[in-house]
Amino acid sequence: MNPQMLFWIPAALRMLLIFAVSAVAWFFWGPVCGLLLCLMSMVAMVVLQLYYLYRLGGWLDNPRGEKLPDGWGAWTDIFSRLYRLRRDDEKNQAELSEWLARFRQAMHLLPDGVVIMDDVLFLEWCNPAAERHLGLQHGRDKGMRVTNLIRNPDFIDYIILGRYDQPLMLTLRERKLVVQIIPFENRRQILVTHDATESERIDMMRRDFIANASHELRTPLTVINGFLEIAQAHPNLDPNVRAGHLKMMTEQGHRMQNLIGDMLTLTRLESIDYPMRPERVNIHAMLKNILQEVEVLSAGQHVFSLRVEGPDINGSTEELRSAFNNLVSNAVRYTPPGGKIDLLWQNTMAGPQLVVRDSGIGFSPEHISRLTERFYRVDKSRSRETQGTGLGLAIVKHVLLRHGGTLAVESTPDKGSVFTVRLPASIVVEKADLLND
User: Fold this and answer.
1) Alpha helices of 110-137 — where are they, by DSSP H?
2) Displacement of CA 318 from its chain's centroid (Å)
3) How far lies 27's CA from each of 23, 31, 39, in Å?
4) How confident is the model at residue 50 (pLDDT cuts 50, 70, 90)?
5) C-alpha dihedral over 34, 36, 42, 46, to 10 degrees?
6) How many CB atoms neighbour CB 231 within 10 A?
């Protein structure tokens, strides 16, 4: 049976009941009484229906589930169905609100900018990343035309041409942005922005590294190949000249060997395939040995001092030795003869630190932020004279990163520099460990 027919059965039964009662009254008390009783029953039914219609209308004006009226007869089924529909609607609205809240939270945390516009480019919504990338403010700029908010000729041309299948590279607010418009629905468009500044910087560093490495290797190879060609063209070359050429080729060969060795060291420090293996590092013995090596490099032209007042630490002996040796060697290279170089290893509240102080040529403050870049040199001519590879401080930076440390630099032109290696207190060898050793 059709469920809708069940709805009408109680009403039909009530009508039959009214006619039956009226017929009985007609039979016992006459036709007037029977018709009057039937009329009064019909009027009561109509009044009751109007009352429930009035209550239903009031509920529809303010459809709250907990205020749904009670019914009688068929109205009981009507109100119960409306109640179920209302409860389902409230449940769907709650789920929709929850998903909308999750969507907004995801859009707020998204690193890429998202701007929703209508078909004539009026701003409807944007997330915080888009506000940072494009200089927008949702509360202030909502309802305004995006082309009036982003006044960039390349962006305007991109909008006018309408070639949205390809993204646009845009320089805006000192950032490199990848911008693309994605049409969706009939009257909506999404503007997506991606900050490519860091990627662009990494790509530029990679290109500079390849160019600098090629340049650094080309010079010694040119010298070696030149002397080899001279030797082949002049078999009877003067022994003294030949000896001079061999000496210079040996020096250039060592320079290439050092450069390649530093490049391999950097690669190893950056690779996850070479995890650090901590061990106890005897700092006093290490610094004493480094000092002996740089005294040979100095050839008696500098005055050195060493003070070890701090504890031993846990770390990589090989890596820390490389970093400390690079710092001290740089001090020797950039300090004129007669200068002084002081080494101090001490413990502080923040952790142990190595201070390398020299009375060298120094440099201006604008160079400090770039000192640890590969092949960056403050004085290129002097670096080549002292056989520097330009990778020493880059190695220092990566060694300290692996040990949780930092490098601080202070320098004054013609007065000297101070390089401070700061390491965390957690790597200090405790006294209990020393007693166990």
Assistant:
1) 128-134
2) 32
3) 6, 7, 16
4) confident
5) -170
6) 15
Q: Could you tell me what percent of the chain has a pLDDT over 70?
A: 86
Please say whether the beta carbons of 69 and 56 come within 8 A: yes
* pLDDT category of residue 379 using cuts at 50, 70 and 90: low
> Is domain 279-434 annotated with CATH 3.30.565.10?
yes
- For Cα atoms 219, 385, 298, give the angle at the middle one, nearest 5 degrees: 140
Instruction: List the one residue out of 127, 146, 147 whose CA is nearest residue 138.
Output: 127
C-alpha–C-alpha distance, residues 360 and 338, integer Å: 10
Tokens for 232, please give them. Answer: 């082949």
Residues 6+ apart with CB under 8 A from 192: 112, 113, 114, 115, 179, 180, 181, 182
Sequence length of the chain is: 437
Could you give the CA distance from residue 36 to residue 43 in angstroms, rounded to a whole number? Answer: 10
Spatial contact of 112 and 193, defined as CB atoms under 8 Å apart: yes
Strand (E) or helix (H) holding 187:
none
How many CA atoms lie within 13 Å of 115's alpha carbon, on the beta-carbon side? 32
In 3-state terms the chain splits into helix, strand, coil percentages (rounded to 5) of: 60, 20, 25
Residue whose C-alpha is closest to residue 328's, from 292, 353, 377, 300 = 292
Per the structure block, which two tokens stand in for 429?
Answer: 């060898």
pLDDT range class, residue 223, cuts 50, 70, 90: confident
Q: What is the pLDDT of residue 94?
A: 84
> What pLDDT band is residue 252 in, cutting at 50, 70 and 90?
confident
Decide which of 2.30.30.100, 3.90.1150.10, 3.40.190.10, 3.30.450.20 is the CATH code for 110-195: 3.30.450.20
Q: What is the C-alpha to C-alpha distance for residues 282 and 308, in angstroms, rounded to an integer?
A: 11
Compute φ and ψ for 152, nearest 5 degrees. Answer: -130, 125
Helix, strand, or coil here: 205?
Answer: helix
Q: Report the alpha-carbon distance of residue 202 to residue 217 in Å, rounded.
A: 22
CATH 1.10.287.130 describes domain 199-270: yes
Residue 112 token pair: 């890429």
Backbone angles phi, psi at 376, to 5 degrees: -80, 130
Percent of the chain with pLDDT over 90: 23
Which residue ranges make up each domain of the chain?
A: 3-103, 110-195, 199-270, 279-434
Crossing angle between the packed helical segments 239-270 and 197-233, to the nearest 10 degrees: 160
What's the token pair of residue 29?
């008390």
Q: Are strands 303-308 and 340-347 parallel, antiparallel or unpaired?
A: parallel
